[in-house]
Amino acid sequence: MKSYRKELWFEVPTRRALLNITPTIVDCLRESGIREGLALVNAMHITASVFINDDEPGLHQDYDRWLEHLAPHEPTSQYLHNLTGEDNADAHMKRQIMGREVVVAITAGKLDFGPWEQIFYGEFDGRRRKRVLVKIIGE
Amino acid sequence: MKSYRKELWFEVPTRRALLNITPTIVDCLRESGIREGLALVNAMHITASVFINDDEPGLHQDYDRWLEHLAPHEPTSQYLHNLTGEDNADAHMKRQIMGREVVVAITAGKLDFGPWEQIFYGEFDGRRRKRVLVKIIGE
Amino acid sequence: MKSYRKELWFEVPTRRALLNITPTIVDCLRESGIREGLALVNAMHITASVFINDDEPGLHQDYDRWLEHLAPHEPTSQYLHNLTGEDNADAHMKRQIMGREVVVAITAGKLDFGPWEQIFYGEFDGRRRKRVLVKIIGE
Asked: For helices C57-70 and A89-98, what crossing angle results, to 10°?
């Protein structure tokens, strides 16, 4: 069994953003030399997500509005977590809906994807350096 | 390390439905010959889910109502994504709540499940052919 | 490839609670002797979650309120599932938002975590014995 590990660093200048990280994961896979196995890609921070969906800007705005509707940032006083001095409780909620991680099949040296699958980093509390972990195991 | 891959095809005649695919995954596992490892089962489309829950028809209707409440299909004009000519933005939301994938432990040649765990394909934008990927790695 | 399996048992005295199970998972990892690979930790019951987030009591109260807002327990008659004699339909919803499972990278014999990542068992229908499965594969 081979295993590969890499940390990806992001510093998103806004509070929230969705970044397509598929090309970077493809680079990791090539670097790993693994042709059959599983890739785990996860946010290492608890106010961010890694998820798979469509790279369509309208949809990304829809996600942002929808997440704000389900877990609004304001008023920040509605969350007990924010009594710790944080203002990011909503980001902890948004991340649960969008998910921490994806596991992707590796087949014949490629991400084994359907036609529209793309991997996104979902930032919900940006403006600082945060990490994503890529771990690939297989042969 | 052994690895096994199979695509399952579905054509759901309605917009939304939940299908119990556990027997098919059991067949895949038997075909793989793998006795210890992990199975990844994921939707290859971004308006569908694979998830684990209970095979109880009342609960499935509850899920449908609840998802419609959290991410309504109508009015379709409320979503920017639908300006692309699609009418399925809500399906992209529903899939995030229900999840893209499950990872299941394989122990002694079986899906290592609790008493009520069953694997479902969750279709939120049906009436066309769509795929699920089964990838099993182990020994 | 090595593989390790353990069942963890919980009996939460209240209907809902979040338990930090990270130390137990660390013990499992040590017991497994696996240094490179993947760990799957999943609820074996369909009214409970395993998820990764912050160990902050205010946040945990926020999660409870927020999940109650998105999928209220009362009135229990609003859910068809509860016609089966259960009163836990809401727990099946809450578990979908918080997720069934986490997959964690194992690197150099450790859980490969960011600074605040902790693993929780999320109970949404407690007051009885329920299980979590730990499966670790690697070398």
From this structure: 60
Whole-angstrom Cα distance, residue A55 to residue A64? 14
Query: Strand pairing of B129-138 and C101-107?
Result: unpaired
3-class secondary structure, A75:
coil
Are residues C37 and A1, on separate chains, in Cβ contact within 8 Å? Answer: yes
Question: Which residue's entry shows tokens 């999928």?
Answer: C71
Distance CA C126, CA C139 (A): 36
Burial letters C60-83, b for 16+ CB under 10 A, else e: bebbbebbeebbebeeeeebbbbe
Q: What is the pTM of this model?
A: 0.99
- Each residue of A14-72: pLDDT tens digit? 999 999 999 999 999 999 999 999 999 999 999 999 999 999 999 999 999 999 999 99
Chain B residues whose C-beta is within 8 A of a chain A C-beta are 1, 3, 5, 38, 40, 42-46, 70-71, 79-84, 89, 92-93, 95-97, 99-101, 103, 131, 133, 135, 137
Place of tokens 């929780």: C120
Sheet with B101-107: list strands edge to edge.
Answer: B2-11, B129-138, B37-43, B101-107, B110-111
Task: Specify the DSSP element, H or E, that contains B130.
Answer: strand B129-138
With CB atoms and an 8 Å threshold, state whether A135 touches C113.
no
Phi first, then psi: what are they for C131, rounded to 5°? -120, 155
Nearest 5°: the CA angle C94, B80, A75 is 50
**Three-state secondary structure call for residue B124:** coil
Residue A66: phi, psi to the nearest 5?
-65, -45
Q: Is A131 in contact with A6 (CB distance < 8 Å)?
A: no
Tell me the one-letter amino acid at A94. K
Alpha-carbon distance B94 to C114, whole Å? 29
